[in-house]
Hints:
The complex is a heterotrimer of chains A (325), B (469) and C (668).
Chain A: H1 2-29, H2 33-41, H3 48-58, H4 74-77, H5 80-85, H6 102-137, H7 142-155, H8 159-173, H9 188-219, H10 222-229, H11 234-257, H12 266-271, H13 277-286, H14 290-318
Helix pairs in contact in A: 1-14, 2-3, 6-7, 6-9, 7-9, 8-9, 9-11, 10-11, 11-14
Chain B: E1 2-5, H1 8-29, H2 31-42, H3 44-62, E2 66-70, E3 82-88, H4 89-94, H5 96-99, E4 117-120, E5 126-129, H6 143-181, H7 185-193, H8 201-221, H9 237-273, H10 275-290, H11 293-310, H12 318-353, H13 356-363, H14 368-405, H15 416-426, H16 435-462, H17 464-468
Antiparallel strand pairs in B: 1-2, 2-3, 4-5
Helix pairs in contact in B: 1-9, 2-16, 3-8, 3-9, 3-16, 6-7, 6-8, 9-10, 9-12, 9-14, 9-16, 10-12, 11-12, 12-14, 13-14, 14-15, 14-16, 15-16
Chain C: E1 4-15, E2 22-33, E3 37-41, H1 48-55, E4 64-73, E5 76-77, H2 83-89, E6 94-97, H3 101-104, H4 111-123, H5 127-140, H6 146-150, H7 159-172, E7 177-181, H8 189-206, E8 209-214, H9 217-223, E9 226-231, E10 234-240, H10 241-246, H11 251-259, H12 298-302, E11 308-311, E12 314-316, E13 350-365, E14 370-386, E15 390-394, H13 401-408, E16 416-421, E17 424-425, H14 431-437, E18 441-444, H15 458-468, H16 475-488, H17 505-517, E19 523-527, H18 535-552, E20 555-560, H19 563-569, E21 572-577, E22 580-586, H20 587-592, H21 597-605, E23 655-657, E24 660-662
Parallel strand pairs in C: 3-8, 3-9, 6-7, 7-8, 15-20, 15-21, 18-19, 19-20
Antiparallel strand pairs in C: 1-2, 1-4, 4-5, 9-10, 10-12, 11-12, 13-14, 13-16, 16-17, 21-22, 22-24, 23-24
Helix pairs in contact in C: 4-5, 4-7, 5-7, 7-8, 15-17, 16-17, 17-18
Amino acid sequence: MFAYIVRRAAYAIPILIGVNLLTFYLFFVVNSPDDMARLHLGVKRVTPEAIEKWKAERGYNKPLMYNEAAAGIDRLTETIFFEKSLKLFAFDFGHSDDGRDISHDIGQRMIPSLAIAIPSLLVGLLINISFAMLLAFFRGTYVDVSGVILSVVLMSVSAMFYIIGGQFLLGKLLRLMPISGYDGGLDAIKFLVLPVIIGVISGIGSSTRLYRSFFLEEAGKDFIRTARAKGLKESRVLFRHLLANAMIPIITGVVVILPLLFMGSLLLESFFAIPGLGSYTIDAINRQDFAIVRAMVFLGSVLYIIGLILVDVAYTVVDPRVRLS
Amino acid sequence: MIMPVILWTDALIFLLVAITTAFALYARRKPHLRAPWRHVVCSRPGSMAVVILCAYIIIGLLDSLHYRLALESNDAGAETHYASEVLSALDALVGPLRTQTEKTYSAPFATHLFTRETIQQPEGGQTREYPRLKYGGRHLQNPAVDARADILRRSGVALAQTLTAGLAVLLLITLWQAHRRQQAFTTMLRTILKRRSEVPWLIIWISLSILALLIFLAANLATAYHVFGTDKVGEDVFYQTLKSIRTGLVIGTLTTLIMLPFAIFMGILAGYARGWIDDVIQYTYTTLSSIPGVLLIAATILMLQVYMANHPELFETTLERADIRLLFLSIILGITSWTGLCRLLRGESLKLREAEYIQAATAFGVRHSKIISRHILPNVMHIVLITVVLDFSGLVLAEAVLTYVGVGVDPTMNSWGNMINSARLEMAREPVVWWSLLAAFLFMFTLVLAANLFSDAVRDAFDPRLRQH
Amino acid sequence: MKQPLLQLENLSARIGTGPRAIRPVDDVSFTINKGETYALLGESGCGKSMTALSILRLLPQPHGRISGGQVRLEDTDLTALPEAEMRQVRGRRIAMIFQEPMTSLNPVLTIGDQIGEMLQQHLQMKGTAKRNRVLELLDAVGIPDVKRRYTEYPHQLSGGMKQRVMIAIALAGEPDLLIADEPTTALDVTIQAQVLELLQKLQRDTHMAILLITHDLGIVAGMADRVAVMYAGQLVEEAVRDRFFTDARHPYSQRLFESLPNVDKRDHALRTIPGFVPILDRDFTGCRFAERCEQAWDTCRIEAPSWEIATDHHHVRCHLEDRNINPPARTTRDDLPLAHATAGTGTGAPLLEVRDLKVHFPIHKGIFKRVVGQVYAVDGVSLDIPEGHTQALVGESGCGKTTVGKGILQLLRPTAGSVQFDNIELTQLKGERLRRRRTDFQFIFQDPYSSMNPRMRVGDIVEEGMIAQEIGNSRQERRQRVDELFAQVGLSPEHAHRYPHEFSGGQRQRICIARALAVNPRLIICDEPTSALDISVQAQILNLLKQLQNELGLSYLFITHNLSVVSYLADRVAVMYLGRIVEEGPVASVLEEPLHPYTRALLSAVPQIDQDSRREIIRLEGDMPSPANPPGGCHFHPRCPDVMPECRENYPGETGSGDHRVRCLLHR
């Protein structure tokens, strides 16, 4: 098991190198640092000196891959590639374009992100699984048909409408909770209720439908017929035999996104002005702060790969048929 | 005199139309393709969705026929110059909607502006009042009294028109079906009305009638009023949301068109060839899919922005500029979304490779190229189709989110994302400006819902696993 | 004293609604007495499984329902019970085991849990008492090492073991009736013998009644007290076993017996039942078997026969038995044409020579896909097939027989050894040269459903090989050839424009044969070509293969697990065990005087119809070991009843007299 995880982690290295090269290409080769400087300083009427200064402040004034001016090992290290891309492997994200320490920002902003993501995930799972089981139990009846139609309707509404509608209804009309904002400590709760509710509601449609299909898939299997032939109560058939099997795809589907919860939700955080990593990313994109975007791309890939490894581990835990070797 | 303009996305849309038509003609001759499609049309939600989608597609296609008008010139011999503004067939069709702009916000069916203005009275002095709109309800003498009656009257006309058209359509459908099936007209009519026909003509007819009602309502009302109000700069919101349809469709379809060749080629190749080719392809898509989609799109669009900002000379009109950005957005969305399909196809090809009919073909010495084209490709097409249809609604929704994040379509382009984005701030106004949001919501929701229903029907019809249940 | 336990009265079931509803069970009545074994015999699609599910009210939901009649368990009408009370019946009074032990157990629950919950549900057992009883039950069904198995999951067990666990589950409720739905169809013949023996032993111990559903006449002969034959949703004949096997009255029952291949019929074509089982979505006016019955006359097509009493306890649904109707004078059945000399018809010159063929599959492990072991699927097989002869290759699943076939055809590249076809070394051929050679040897697959591309017309499927091998100059010429081929395999040329799913299993297998013939091969490797087919259809295909051999001088390598087919069709037979041939020789010699203990066990395990010649079954312990890790010495020694100490040391060399060779230390 441990050896397996180590091997999988080793397999992640070439992928991360790929990600790294790709971002390097996108950020430094497609457009030169000069282009970026010009974008930030205004395209017209900008002096070469100002550009050089902008670049020097941010460490973009070095050669891309190979520094002929330097000596020895510095020829490779005194480059943008080494400074900006390779150092990501050490989780050294450097400084943002306006000079803030990215690692520090990420550490601080992770907590509000998780404060929304984890409750949304747990509450959502509970609700979605219950609904899906309900529909599967009543399969073929009007309960099921109308439930499926409702799910399709719910999943056809853009998440942004849920947010705007929820803010308007609960925040503005009913004044039940603050529309947006955030506070430290326990005070955060009153700011988190609305985003969590909306996060849960916006996911109900698609997840319920997906989970229902998992349940129906398992319900058609022979061993369910065996369970009924044993004369077991329907509740036992449902909870012990059906749920145990349908949980396998559900759990593994959840586990794969677990690490990505750290990245936060772009929409929820930005609409509710919560200082998490999601809004951090959006702000960076809007301010065209490439250093942060680069860091987040790398972080996202790392978390994704961790998710893939976790899924494999999760399979061995929930499915006795799978053994890692 | 007009000069046709073919934008990049227009060209691709027409390519897509051509491919779809060719495929339809091909599928007609193949029972294994015709039967599931029939199944789609015969399911009730499926047939309803098809009607709605067709309406959207027609609007989108009309909006893709672009041209530039010739400028009036006094000098007969002189070279004709063309206006810099690019119009579409849709603009010509809805004419006044585009040109009748007010000063600023006005509510749906309003005759006065939404905000008070200071007006100089002829007898001197100033008053703060809601000024009359330039276009909305312009024909009314006394809007406060007449508006309601006028709207009702116009709606009545629309209803009458719908009834007439609806009956005519029912007549035509029945006549056609009666002729095709060699049945008496009355028998056929009864079959249709009692929902005993195989294709649910009653549902189709009802959907068509509702659609007709909406069109007639729009035709009667939208010329005299702003049915969805106007936005900050006084543009008609109904016009905006109509124009947004094309953007949504382009994102939903072109993305797929762009990614399909990659996904199909690489997926089948990886599964069939195995070995190092498989390793390379797997590595490629794992790497690409490991980058969170939004961030990859953000990074690429940001870079595109930098490039465009530094090369303004490449784009003649703002529309062209926006169009290129739309195209790039589709390409990048395509790059982030081909990995899923590629993985599915790889898995299926790996399985098919061992299928006995492929082994049989190998035992006959059939060449690899033939095995792929005759055996593997036709047997994975249902996966491709289901994925394409399933992805569509997700892509339409993604456009709104990406535009909100700031890496979607160009801010000058009409799109639901841009509408929502600007309406978001208007919700904070007191009193609330809600109509932009409502219009975007209604049009987007209908499209996505229809697409979801359609994809359900397609999946039911094509997925062999689902058919067994 | 016979006491009725379960009575079905005019039971009918429907799947679906409307005019296209399927009626798999239509007016079925029978009685099962306490303690007896009642066999329900029929081909696939005749409704026998649905009858069983109707009894337990477990028809597939939401489309299936009981549409009429009663099921009485002693004095209770099961069809009228509320669901909660019905649950008291399921498992407790009537238990059921299913055909597919692989999928019938819940993969994520332990064996102990799955048996234990029966005890908890029906006998309110808990804790240690429950555990002890589960261990007892596992022991009773012959599972070794019960304590370990208790905590294991189904995937850790072999197929035979899983079916034993299913039986243990069924036993847990101490039922009065056990419904066994094709309990051994998915199992190998030696495992089948174990499971059947177990069922008989349990029945002796517990006196439960068994409703045995099967398609295998041999199993019926060995197990049943009474037999009912089901056809197209109805019972057509019911009798005490001995009477049924000596004096079957219904033409369908009679044909079933006649279409069984065996050694005595070698010189004849098999009698077949034309056509196939009708689909049960329509109304029948006359006798349901009339369209396939040679003895049918006008009355049969107009009037449905009633349930006639032939003699005591012997019922037949046939107008021939109706004393009020005089059948037209029966045309005496012509005796079947002598089917040609059975021994090879060709020159006898060797066509295929396989020497020491090995196909190993490396086992990859880990990220870097290191090879950590080999699956020795085929480990040194030698065979000769002369022109115009049939060589059978027999063995249980997993012994590597299919891999031999694919290795010979180079569909799988052999790891070592030589395959000479007409003196050309196939293992050395590559690319275009191999491709051109493929016209000489063809393959017929086991499953006619998956061996044709569902997206192609069958005409195109047959033509494909001709195009690839450039046979026929024009499309027209090829089409003409396709028509000829269709006629040759007994199909009409119009069929060429249809798609595979429009054909029945037997018709599909005919198309597959036509496809193989299209390139004029000299050798055809048939991989279990009839095992997916019903008995009556199997006979049609065997006849066709034999006839083609005579007409075209084909050679066959016939891969099968079915020894009666071998005895009917083959000239020589090779018995495979774990990647190697353990015995090889002429059919008569090997089947009559088997030398290897494995061959003997295999032969004795085949259920026999002829009760007089019933031999004592040689029970083989356990399952076939994994070919990734074959036992040292003789591969068979862990299961061999005659094992000697030296068997564990060396793999025996080839010995034997004349052309009957064996690899066993008993025959040094």
